[in-house]
Write a structure and sequence with these properties.
Blueprint (H helix, E strand, L loop, with lengths): L5 H15 L4 H20 L9 H8 L1
């Protein structure tokens, strides 16, 4: 993972805690999680609701 070991990750975490504060970390984590989830959905092509074909919609209206 980019050549980062445990000591480097701990130093990065401490710096992030100093910059943002411990109270903001859950909000930042949630935002990053939502961003990753949306990115995965966009890459995989999943939609929340299926797209109806025009022909299917005409049959329902008739």
């Amino acid at each position: 993972m980019f050549g980062l070991g445990m000591p480097e990750l701990i130093v990065i975490l401490v710096i992030i805690m100093i910059v943002f504060g411990a109270g903001k970390l859950p909000e930042i984590g949630a935002g990053i999680g939502k961003g990753i989830r949306n990115f995965k959905k966009a890459v995989s092509g999943e939609d929340e609701k299926p797209v109806e074909k025009i022909e299917d919609k005409k049959e329902k209206d008739a």
